[in-house]
Amino acid sequence: MKKKFKFTLAYQILVGLILGIIVGAVFFGNPSVETYLQPIGDIFINMIKMIVVPIIISTLIVGVAGTGGIKQLGKLGGKTLLYFEVVTTFAIIVGLLAANIFKPGVGLDISTLAKGNIDQYVQTTEEVQNNGFMDIIVNIVPSNIIQSMAEGDMLAIIFFAVLFGLGVAAIGEKGKPVLSFFQATADAMFWVTNLIMKFAPFGVFALIGVTVSKFGLESLVPLGKLLILVYATMAFFIIVVLGSIAKICGTNIFHLIKVLKDELILAYSTSSSETVLPKVMQKMERFGCPKDVVSFVIPTGYSFNLDGSTLYQALAAIFIAQMYGIELSIIQQITLMLVLMVTSKGIAGVPGVSFVVLLATLGTVGIPLEGLAFIAGIDRILDMARTVVNVVGNALATVVMSKWEGRFDREKEEEYIASVEQSA
After folding, report:
1. Which of these, 267, 369, 357, lies nearest to 312 by C-alpha position?
2. Which of 78, 145, 302, 348 is least surrounded by Cβ atoms within 10 Å, i.e. has the fewest?
3. What does the angle CA 297 – CA 176 – CA 65 come to, to the nearest 5 degrees?
4. Which strand (E) or helix (H) includes residue 332?
5. 295, 281 in Cβ contact below 8 A?
């Protein structure tokens, strides 16, 4: 019997993506595209931002209250941060190796490249550099949680929600109504998420249309080698590095990708991992991970486990050095790696984070900062790839932590994969 074709959300987003590319290419250089389409894209991104904070707070409070106490949560937190550090270090090493082996910046004629505007990133970098490492630690503790929520300060929100969840657990029976309230809030917000997702194809169409109409497809040609290498390295990292980690803990990385296909297409199209955070949390629970592990690991990963971003930062730094004919010694590259390990952790909530981290890092090994202006034009296309890696990396982290804690539900995973394959 022939299967009936279903026009699922993944296909709708793909159609939006393709139509956006076509419209952007046809009307290249026409400012009207931005005038009419940008508001649609902004509305979609704003709708996602609107639901992220309530979902993180409600799920984290419910999750933490269910862990049983501060000792168990401390153990989970320690293991999670250790895992994040190891995997992001691997990502930096893969990025450095790819750039050194394939040398995408060697022989590139700078005079043929168009310069993008990086003023906004320079300004943000100056603000970030004025804050030392201790300031970052201090700012994790919010002085005003309402202000932190309004600014979307993820680490401060996580800190407050964890403490509040522990408080709810500590007061026992009296905390039950509070727990019910936050559980109902989480359920309601997931319903709102499903509603907003119906608008996703239009948001994707608008965002891609504006991007392509601004830089055109011909601007990709001179930097084609960098573009191909970034995409190939990202694919290698997902299949080989994350695939090996998944295999070690008894999961197939392709099963995970199949389960998250809608979210990966959406994250790729919008180049924002925030757009898929609610759905990824929902799906990882259905995949067999306990609620408290999911609600702690994924939001924390958005600040500390950006595998795609750190891989790209390492690769782009060496690319710019090669473009200027600067030979970096092994010591300089190790210095670069150590600096990236620190800077990429503290400022994850900043818009254009990869650019800001690179600006804060390049000077330490003598690479000209203006080199970033040459890749600013294609940064959005590169950002799309690194966003996918960030999402897969964080989803896998919840599986690894659930298994490390000995609380992963294998039956749930098998049932969920079977249901996904059936509906495909």
Report:
1. 357
2. 78
3. 20
4. helix 330-346
5. yes
Residue whose token pair is 């995408």? 104
Which residues, 6+ apart, have CB-to-CB distance to 58 below 8 Å?
182, 183, 185, 186, 189
What is the longest distance spanned by two Cα atoms in the chain?
Answer: 70
Q: Is the dihedral of CA 336, 342, 343, 345 positive or negative?
A: positive
| 71 CB neighbour count, 10 Å cutoff | 9
Burial of 151 (0-12, 13-18, 19+ CB in 10 A): middle
Global confidence as pTM: 0.89
Tokens of 184: 């109902």
- Encode the chain (424 residues) as per-residue pLDDT tens digits: 455 667 788 889 999 999 998 999 898 888 888 899 999 999 998 998 899 899 989 998 988 887 766 778 888 889 999 999 999 999 999 999 999 999 998 877 776 666 666 665 665 555 555 555 566 678 789 999 999 899 888 888 888 998 999 899 888 889 899 999 999 999 999 999 999 999 999 999 998 898 888 776 666 677 888 999 999 999 999 999 999 999 999 999 999 999 999 999 999 988 888 889 899 999 999 999 998 899 889 988 988 888 998 999 999 999 999 988 898 899 999 998 888 887 776 555 454 667 777 887 887 788 888 888 888 878 888 889 999 999 999 999 999 999 999 999 999 999 999 988 887 6
Question: How many CB atoms are located within 10 Å of the residue 254 CB?
Answer: 12
Q: 297 with 70: CB under 8 angstroms?
A: no
Q: Identify which of 268, 304, 264, 300 has the alpha carbon closest to the alpha carbon of residue 280.
A: 264
For the chain, the residue count is 424
The token pair at 367 is 């690479």
**Structural tokens at position 419:** 């249901």
For residue 64 the two structure tokens come to 């933490």
The two tokens of residue 268 are: 């790729």
DSSP 81-103: HHHHHHHHHHHHHHHHHHHHHH-
